[in-house]
Amino acid sequence: MQTLIVAVLVLWASLYAAWTLMPAPWRRALLRRAQHHFPGLARRVPAAEGGCGGCGGSCGPGPGKKPAGVAQPIQLHLPRRR
Predict the structure, then answer these.
(1) Which are the contacts of 65, defined by CB distance < 8 A and separation ≥ 6?
(2) DSSP output for 51-77
(3) Disordered: where is this region (predicted)?
(4) pLDDT digits (tens, 9 = 90+) for 23-79
(5) CA torsion sign, 53 to 54 to 57 to 62?
(6) What are the structural domain ranges in the chain?
(7) What is the reported pTM?
(8) pLDDT at 54
(9) Residue 56: which of 20, 17, 24 has the closest Cα?
């Protein structure tokens, strides 16, 4: 029984990692194909719509953000010594 539980967890983790690391066009194609067999799947699976990684197009510069070509300073926050 314990082996079965471990096998299911490893399988689930492998599928999750593959889905997360998969390119967005592949995820969209798989979702489109799966929706024919499972219509309610689109509500449960995070959509890979818009943008490069499915975040809804929030990758572009927004209010208070500088464009990608502008140099930005790096700030290091070191932990305090006790």
Answers:
(1) none
(2) TTTSS-STTS--TTPPPTTS-------
(3) 62-82
(4) 989 988 888 888 888 777 666 665 545 445 555 555 555 556 666 677 878 888 888
(5) negative
(6) 23-55
(7) 0.47
(8) 52
(9) 24
